């Protein structure tokens, strides 16, 4: 509109000025920001379409502010009318679409123009682009019913266009904006809402496959927007399944799936018979048929969707695994059936004989149906597919279906087991995971177990570990099965000693799940003899430990088992219970009074005693301020010791205990530092002695960082206390420096910095200050104005008194707190053989570590290598090196490259894991901080690292290069 | 009537000596040119005299297509081209072209050197023959001449096996050769698009079999091998040099890799080594896994499989040996078998079918004491296992392929008559297409209705399109125009343009028809009644009452006149042009029914 007006106005300037008011409105528009003006000038300058296109392209690179969008749009529209070249018009149309997406701009004012230019446009490409623009406008204004109706109307008009692109866009528009509710705004401006579904449905039979696809997609879009699709679409969609084009078929499969989820229970007739079945079953059959489609894209799509069709009846579901075999027209049994039979006849699978699979009964030729329209064998085909994408999709679908149907789970077991031998590792891994997920529904037969266990020898660690996890939660049916599993696991252990922990863990669960099956095996496993004493096995043998772990865990629920143990077994039990307490449970052993077992049974109903103990000892400490310093120190020392021991004993309380102990340690250090005699002596005399105080300050700082960043589950209330402690440490540092350094200049800077920090503390934790009554910082803030004005020496003096007077803050315990920890499994650090390599070149060191309770390990965990010359090297592992085997647990498997100049003899380097922290992450950001109010010197972000694993020593020897 | 004629010279209701003649739209194509394993006389080659009686081969045949390198598909090629005489093009895929001469040479050696046959083709002939070969790529459309084109599709089965589409104009035939619809360890599955040929010629080796999943067989095989070597036993796997041998090698190689095994695997040298070389080269023809990983490592560069030396057989400790030939009837595999047969720890695995009379067949049928030459008796203590690894499509696979290609009719070859019969029934029943299974020498004639392309002027098309209401895909539409046939090209133009082009003047053709009406009123009134009646019935046409008393409907003129004899009857004169024939005849029929009784 505006452009029209403008044009007319320009013409009218030369004639008679009649419509003054129009000029004024136009002027208002022209005084929009310079951005539009610049564009206008550019476009006017452009001599050729190519030039104009260039200008537009340049313009499109820069963002436009919301206020100036309208002006720019006007300019563009004006140019659009004048432009003859379709490519420029196309670009303008696309720019309009982009601009109308600008946040804060309401595009309803340009809609009229857009529709207007749409009507006069001839070029199909530009038309399609304009429709796209309308789509952008329409989706920006989802509430405006009238506009939506109008746009739908426009789309319907252009549906008969000869170009597929235009039809595509129209359908897209309909899908995104069309609605079904006819009643709401029955005829805003005389536009009646149309039956969008019907219109879109008509284009299912368009001659262009792209339009057909767009129609189906539009229908799916309608569904996604929450409109209920009609059931009549189902038949139309079914016809599209035999389309010539894969994208149509793929979309049709989706549509059928959607309809089947909407109307699962309605009844549809089976063609060429009088029978009727549920719609979901029919759809399931059809999608199953698509699993053997010619295009793998469709196959993947179909296989994926099968998994989510849970309402399908079990009869159909089980058909998917059925494939009637025949040979020369005689019925043959599948290998699975034969294996089952062999098993049930009590005979071990003895290998196949010639003619073992000889076909048995004759088949009636009429009854064989070679391509069942139903679900027959869909998964059999899917799992055998050429493309691994299809196989993975099929395995996933199997998993989902099996989770919802135990009987199906039992049936699909054979097929899943077969997938363990797939040629692609990803597929193998996926099927192992799947099996684990459905493991509570299934019991493995012996022959199946055999196949599963064969995979234990796989050279891929991921596969083996996945399999261990699987075995952890598998049900085994016989004692032979358990024996087999144990033997195979021991074989695995012998072949890959690094799997030790994983195997032990696996056996722990295997034992506790099957106590009755383990019981008859015990004499054999322990190689005890009724008459003869046998040799005592080596206690350090991982294989022997593995056996014991299995037995002890089984014995936990099987009280008769310990009677079968020989003497040394009891001794070994005591040893293992102590050394591997996470693997070996507490047993009630006959003849041995296990104190814990008797006591625990009495106290069980009460509150956990250790929890109580923890609480009591902390309460005791928090009443501290009333005690004299000497007694306080002793009490603190005692409590810290108690807490540390408690943490070691009770793994579930370790986090809390350690956390509190660390805090108390800080407090203790502070008290000790303040108790120093040095404060009473004149400054120049105690230069040497001040070490203790400054060391204490340093250590407190370190501990507070640990408290803040090494524990998961720390809440804001704790953070305040930690920061408070740190502030105290800083004050201490300041005092010590003040007393040890001469001259005022360095002190001046330090003072200022400290005060800034106090300021920062106040800002960050202003909400929590009320909890800090009577504390150091509370008093400090009271005196703040005075401090700001006073000289450094005076500040120090005030601080010193305040530190002494400050009370001990109570640390509230968080609900869930866990200490981040890491153990390096490899390198083991026991080797005496140095790792030799030529100096100047690199050697790769495999590092394998487990991390517990580390949040976001990909960005925080680093590997540090410390060379004997003090040189340290930090390595950032790749994100892909981290695996996540369970909640809160991570595993780092990476390679560290070492290099050094030549040494004369081998020496040890230390490898350890570091936890990098960055205080920015935790402290909430306030807008004024970013505003630059706080000077940059203040440590708003503290970066550093905390070592959190025991260092491992690796013996290396860089040799000089030979000439 | 155009037709497609198919005559199998071999492989008609039989396995072996595949050779099928196809005549399509005047072009003659020979599909495969194989030999028969079962015969040693003239019957081993197809009977080319069937063609030569009408002249030279080159004159008759437009091209020869070889589907893959197995001898029952290409064994007669040198004989055919060099001894009978054919100089036209021979089409095959690149791997087939590479491997085919090796096998032919081997075949020749056995026939001439071992059996001492005379009058057999020579090495030179094989070379000359291969010079006539034109190699094709997958999915490449090759123009044999102006009209005949062929296109290759992937067939699985063996390296380089292909299905071929032969197309002349709109008529086409697809020949599958041998194919496999389930992928194996080194090859993918056969695939064809919805090409809707007039005829699909498919193999039907396993017409009556539905096979079990491949995984079980593979797993069993690996398990057995693994168990035996773990016990310290030796495993002998007799194989033929090409095809299955590579599959089993890949299978064992990956298993060894996965399980970290160190036991040596040996492969008998010679032919197989040469063949492996080609497998390394033609990676694009293998399955997804090998294609994806070959950048890191070519799977056919075996890490664990080494060349075999005769002396290795006596080495202590476990080992796995692949040895030729596959049926234990002669050569290296038999030698090794004799050495190892006595130890019960050892094992022999027969991966394929064995012909009666061979040692392989004997041991498979359970014979434990074998009589060797020289009256020796060999006691077989080693374990004997049978594993069927076959690379043909089973009945379900064949049906699947038919479903994919959607042919108008199907023809079965390369199978036994009895089994074919079953499959034929099934195909006819389930796809409702005709299915044939000719014997050798029998000709099947298939009438076709080829579509003839006609050019249409854009103006006419747009005009006619505009009249339609909604686009209806794949539905026939009525179109008015003039068909001009000139120099074997067809054009559809509007009638005006046709008149102009041909320099003809337009003739008006009018139909007139009299309709008698019982009406006593005056002509004017009758006309008025007719007018109102038509106005009511034909709502979307333009009905006019002209001042001269006549009524027009579009261009149709209706006049009422009194009957000359009977004044109670009025005669309606209806006149329309040829173009309005449809409306005109409708109107007459309407008027003949009489006018509705006017409310008088």
Automatic annotation (TrEMBL), chain B:
Name this protein carries in UniProt: Integrator complex subunit 11
Primary location recorded for the protein, binned into one broad class: cytoplasm
Domain Metallo-beta-lactamase as annotated: residue spans: 16-233
Gene designation per UniProt: Ints11
GO cellular component: cytoplasm; integrator complex
GO biological process, one term: RNA polymerase II transcription initiation surveillance
Domain Beta-Casp: 245-363
Keyword annotations from UniProtKB, A to Z: Cytoplasm, Hydrolase, Metal-binding, Nucleus, Zinc
Record note on quaternary structure: Component of the Integrator complex, composed of core subunits INTS1, INTS2, INTS3, INTS4, INTS5, INTS6, INTS7, INTS8, INTS9/RC74, INTS10, INTS11/CPSF3L, INTS12, INTS13, INTS14 and INTS15. The core complex associates with protein phosphatase 2A subunits PPP2CA and PPP2R1A, to form the Integrator-PP2A (INTAC) complex. INTS11 is part of the RNA endonuclease subcomplex, composed of INTS4, INTS9, INTS11 and inositol hexakisphosphate (InsP6). Interacts with WDR73; interaction is required for the assembly of the RNA endonuclease subcomplex in the cytoplasm.
Family: Belongs to the metallo-beta-lactamase superfamily. RNA-metabolizing metallo-beta-lactamase-like family. INTS11 subfamily.
Record bears the keyword Zinc: yes
Keyword Cell membrane: no
Cofactor annotation: Zn(2+)
Organism: Nannospalax galili
GO molecular function: hydrolase activity; metal ion binding; RNA endonuclease activity
Subcellular location: Cytoplasm; Nucleus
CDD domains: INTS11-like_MBL-fold (cd16291)
């Amino acid at each position: 509109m505006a452009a029209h007006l403008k044009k007319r106005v320009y013409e009218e300037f030369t004639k008679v000025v009649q419509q003054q008011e129009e000029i004024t409105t136009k002027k208002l528009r022209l005084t929009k920001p310079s951005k539009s003006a610049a564009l206008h000038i550019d476009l006017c300058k452009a001599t050729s379409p190519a030039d104009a296109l260039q200008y537009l392209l340049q313009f499109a690179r820069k963002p436009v502010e919301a206020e100036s969008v309208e002006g720019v749009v006007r300019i563009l529209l004006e140019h659009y009318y004048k432009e003859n070249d379709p490519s420029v018009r196309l670009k303008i149309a696309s720019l309009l679409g982009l601009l109308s997406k600008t946040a804060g701009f309401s595009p309803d004012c340009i809609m009229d123009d857009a529709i207007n230019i749409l009507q006069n446009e001839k070029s199909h490409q530009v038309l399609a682009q304009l429709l796209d623009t309308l789509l952008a406008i329409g989706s920006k204004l989802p509430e405006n019913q009238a506009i939506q109706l109008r746009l739908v109307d426009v789309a319907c008009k252009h549906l008969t266009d000869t170009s597929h692109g235009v039809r595509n866009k129209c359908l897209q528009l309909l899908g995104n904006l069309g609605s079904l509710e006819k009643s709401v705004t029955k005829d805003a401006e005389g536009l009646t809402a149309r039956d969008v579904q019907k219109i879109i449905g008509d284009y299912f039979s368009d001659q262009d496959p792209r339009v057909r696809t767009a129609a189906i997609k539009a229908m799916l879009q309608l569904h996604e927007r929450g409109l209920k699709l009609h059931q009549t679409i189902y038949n139309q969609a079914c016809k599209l399944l035999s389309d010539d084009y894969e994208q149509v078929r793929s979309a049709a499969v989706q549509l059928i799936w959607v309809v089947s989820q909407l109307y699962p229970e309605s009844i549809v007739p089976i063609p060429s018979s009088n029978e009727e079945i549920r719609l979901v079953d029919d759809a399931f059959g059809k999608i199953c048929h698509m699993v053997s489609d010619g295009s793998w894209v469709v196959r993947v799509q179909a296989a994926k969707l099968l998994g989510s069709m849970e309402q399908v009846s079990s009869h159909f579901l089980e058909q998917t695994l059925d494939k009637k075999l025949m040979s020369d027209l005689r019925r043959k049994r599948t290998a699975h059936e034969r294996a089952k039979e062999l098993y049930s006849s009590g005979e071990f699978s003895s290998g196949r004989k010639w003619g073992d699979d000889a076909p048995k009964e004759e088949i009636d030729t009429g009854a064989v149906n070679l391509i069942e329209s139903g679900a027959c064998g869909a998964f059999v085909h899917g799992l055998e597919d050429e493309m691994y994408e299809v196989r993975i999709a099929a395995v996933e679908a199997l998993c989902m279906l099996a989770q919802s149907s135990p009987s199906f789970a039992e049936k699909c077991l054979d097929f899943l087991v077969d997938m363990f031998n797939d040629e692609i590792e990803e597929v193998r891994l996926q099927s192992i995971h799947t099996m684990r997920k459905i493991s509570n529904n299934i019991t493995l037969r012996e022959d199946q177990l055999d196949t599963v266990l064969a995979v234990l020898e796989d050279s891929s660690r991921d596969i083996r570990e996945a399999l261990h996890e699987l075995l952890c939660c598998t049900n085994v049916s016989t004692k032979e099965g358990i024996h087999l599993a144990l033997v195979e696991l021991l074989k695995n252990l012998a072949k890959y000693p690094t799997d030790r922990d994983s195997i032990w863990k696996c056996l722990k669960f295997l034992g506790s799940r099957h106590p009755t099956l383990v019981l008859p095996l015990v004499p054999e496993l322990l190689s005890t003899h009724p008459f003869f004493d046998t040799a005592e096995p080596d206690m350090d043998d991982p294989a022997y430990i593995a056996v014991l772990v299995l037995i002890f865990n089984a014995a936990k629920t099987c009280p008769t088992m310990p009677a079968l143990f020989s003497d040394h077994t009891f001794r070994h039990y005591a040893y293992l219970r102590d050394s591997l307490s996470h693997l070996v449970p507490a047993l009630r052993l006959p003849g041995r009074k296990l104190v814990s077992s008797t006591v625990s049974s009495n106290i069980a109903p009460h509150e956990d005693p250790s929890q109580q103990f923890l609480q009591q000892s902390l309460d005791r400490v928090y009443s501290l301020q009333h005690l004299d310093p000497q007694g306080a120190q002793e009490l603190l020392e005692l409590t810290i010791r108690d807490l540390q021991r408690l943490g070691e004993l009770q793994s579930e309380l370790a986090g809390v205990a350690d956390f509190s102990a660390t805090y108390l340690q800080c407090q203790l250090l502070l008290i000790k530092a303040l108790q120093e005699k040095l404060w009473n002596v004149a400054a120049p005399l105690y230069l040497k002695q001040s070490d203790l105080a400054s060391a204490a300050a340093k250590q407190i700082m370190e501990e507070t960082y640990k408290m803040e960043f090494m524990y998961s589950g720390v809440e804001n209330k704790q953070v305040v206390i930690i920061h408070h402690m740190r502030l105290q440490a800083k004050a201490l540092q300041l005092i010590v420096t003040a007393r040890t350094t001469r001259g005022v200049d360095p002190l001046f800077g330090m003072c200022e910095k400290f005060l800034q920090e106090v300021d920062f503390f106040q800002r960050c934790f202003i909400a929590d200050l009320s909890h800090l009554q009577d504390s150091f910082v509370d008093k400090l803030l009271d005196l703040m104005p005075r401090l700001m004005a006073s000289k450094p020496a005076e500040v120090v003096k005030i601080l010193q008194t305040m530190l002494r007077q400050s009370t001990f803050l109570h640390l509230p315990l968080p609900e869930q707190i866990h200490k981040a920890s890491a153990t390096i499994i490899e390198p083991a650090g026991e080797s005496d053989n140095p790792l030799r390599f030529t100096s100047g070149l690199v050697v790769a060191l495999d590092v394998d570590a487990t991390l517990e309770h580390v949040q976001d390990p990909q960005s925080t965990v680093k590997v540090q290598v410390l060379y004997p010359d003090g040189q340290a090297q930090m390595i950032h592992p790749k994100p892909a090196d981290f695996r996540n085997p369970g909640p809160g647990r991570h595993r780092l498997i990476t390679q560290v490259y070492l290099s050094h100049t030549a040494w004369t003899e081998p020496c040890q380097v230390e490898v350890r894991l570091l936890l990098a922290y960055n205080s920015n992450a935790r402290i909430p950001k306030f807008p004024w901080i970013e505003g630059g109010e706080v000077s940059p010197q203040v440590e708003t972000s503290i970066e550093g690292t905390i070592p959190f694993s025991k260092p491992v020593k690796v013996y290396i020897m860089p040799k000089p290069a030979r000439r | 009537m155009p037709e497609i004629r198919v005559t199998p010279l071999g492989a008609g209701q039989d396995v072996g000596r595949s050779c099928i003649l196809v005549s399509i739209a005047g072009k003659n194509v020979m599909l495969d040119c194989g030999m028969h394993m079962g015969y040693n006389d003239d019957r081993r080659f197809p009977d080319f005299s069937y063609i030569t009686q009408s002249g030279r081969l080159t004159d008759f045949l437009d091209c020869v297509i070889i589907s893959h390198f197995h001898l029952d598909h290409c064994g007669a090629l040198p004989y055919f081209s060099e001894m009978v005489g054919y100089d036209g093009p021979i089409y095959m895929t690149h791997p087939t072209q590479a491997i085919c001469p090796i096998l032919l040479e081997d075949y020749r050696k056995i026939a001439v050197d071992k059996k001492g046959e005379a009058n057999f083709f020579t090495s030179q002939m094989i070379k000359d023959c291969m010079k006539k070969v034109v190699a094709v790529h997958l999915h490449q459309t090759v123009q044999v001449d102006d009209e005949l084109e062929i296109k290759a599709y992937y067939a699985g089965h063996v390296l380089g096996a292909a299905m071929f589409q032969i197309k002349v104009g709109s008529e086409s035939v697809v020949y599958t050769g041998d194919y496999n619809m389930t992928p194996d360890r080194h090859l993918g599955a056969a695939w064809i698009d919805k090409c809707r040929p007039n005829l699909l010629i498919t193999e039907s080796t396993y017409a009556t079999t539905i096979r079990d999943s491949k995984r079980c067989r593979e797993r069993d095989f690996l398990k057995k091998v693994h168990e035996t070597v773990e016990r310290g036993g030796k495993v002998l796997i007799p194989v033929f040099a090409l095809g299955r041998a590579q599959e089993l090698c890949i299978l064992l190689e990956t298993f060894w890799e996965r399980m970290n095994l160190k036991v040596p695997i040996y492969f008998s040298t010679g032919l197989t080594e040469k063949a492996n070389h080609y497998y390394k080269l033609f990676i694009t023809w293998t399955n997804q896994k090998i294609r994806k990983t070959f950048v890191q490592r070519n799977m056919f560069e075996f890490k664990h499989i080494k060349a075999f030396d005769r002396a290795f057989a006596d080495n202590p400790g476990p080992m796995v040996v692949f040895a030729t030939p596959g049926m234990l009837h002669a050569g290296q595999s038999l030698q090794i078998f004799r050495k190892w047969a006595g130890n019960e720890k050892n094992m022999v695995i027969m991966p394929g079918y064995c012909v009666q009379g061979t040692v392989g067949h004997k041991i498979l049928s359970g014979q434990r004491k074998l009589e060797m030459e020289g009256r020796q008796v060999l006691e077989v203590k080693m374990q004997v296992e049978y594993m069927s690894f076959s690379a043909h499509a089973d009945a379900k696979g064949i049906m699947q392929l038919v479903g994919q290609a959607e042919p108008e009719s199907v023809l079965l070859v390369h199978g036994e008559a009895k089994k074919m019969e079953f499959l034929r029934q099934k195909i006819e029943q389930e796809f409702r297409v005709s299915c044939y299974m000719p014997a050798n020498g029998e000709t099947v004639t298939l009438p076709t209705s080829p579509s003839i392309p006609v050019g249409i002027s854009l103006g006419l098309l747009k005009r006619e399109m505009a009249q339609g209401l909604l686009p209806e895909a794949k539905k026939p539409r009525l179109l008015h125009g003039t068909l001009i046939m000139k120099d074997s090209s067809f054009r559809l133009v509007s009638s005006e343009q046709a008149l102009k082009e041909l320099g003809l003047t337009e003739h008006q053709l009018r139909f007139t028809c009299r309709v008698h009406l019982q009406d006593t009123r005056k002509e004017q009134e009758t006309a008025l009644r007719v007018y109102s009646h038509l106005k009511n019935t034909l709502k979307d046409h333009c009905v006019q009452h002209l001042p001269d008393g006549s009524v027009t409907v579009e261009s149709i003129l209706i006049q009422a006149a009194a009957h000359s004899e009977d004044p109670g009857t009025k005669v309606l004169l209806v006149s329309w042009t040829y173009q309005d024939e449809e409306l005109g005849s409708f109107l007459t029929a309407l008027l003949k029914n009489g006018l509705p009784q006017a409310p008088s």
